[in-house]
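Q: I'm writing up a methods section and want to include an example of the input and output format. Could you take the sequence below and give the corresponding predicted structure tokens, formatted cleanly so I can copy it straight into the document?
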Amino acid sequence: MQKKKIIGVTDCSKYANYSNWILEHGDTVEVVKLSYKTQNFTDIRQCDGVLLTGGEDVHPRFYNQPELYKYCYADDVSEERDAFEWKILEYTEKNALPVLGICRGLQIANVFFGGTLIPDIPRWGKFNHSKMPDDTDRYHEVAVDPNSWLYGLIKSEKGVINSNHHQSADRIGEGLIVSAFSPDGVVEALDRKDPAGKSFLCLIQWHPERMNDPGSNFVKNIKTAFVEAAVSSKT
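A: Here is the clean output for your methods example:
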């Protein structure tokens, strides 16, 4: 019997959504929670891939702009989580582990690679990208660069995605490139600028784990590619 591949999923308030979404792929994978609360970082050694989940704002001190903290949600910042996931990214880069970053996952990864964040999108002159007044996800169009690595996964230049965030990538980190934008110019996805010979790294701002259409290429293609990268990893 073939040994299951293990996906590490970082802890957050909606952890079960991400865990269940990965497990829906089938019995070739199992999930391990990587939690800043229990500081079980060493569990990453058994992982074949890592999913960085959504959640809290990244503290601006991690991108050397602590003065922007006033634009964050003060009750929704965890420097402990930031530091924990920073260590995870150091590990995944050093050991060539596949990484899928969702929402905050994109943001902490962009900061890790030397980028910065817009701490509050509406105050920076863009449309609101946070949830709707009735607490449901907002939905909007997205444009994918047809020359991007992401396009190779999604096979579509346009689509509709969900949206629930008030921060986004600003200056893009070293070695990364924007592969998808919203109509108002908010960064919706980041790829490696030169992915050849490097480990899988897919960073997206939307939430595929809870989109209305699980059959969308913006959902199933991304999960399939990520899990397959983990399954074929050499760990």
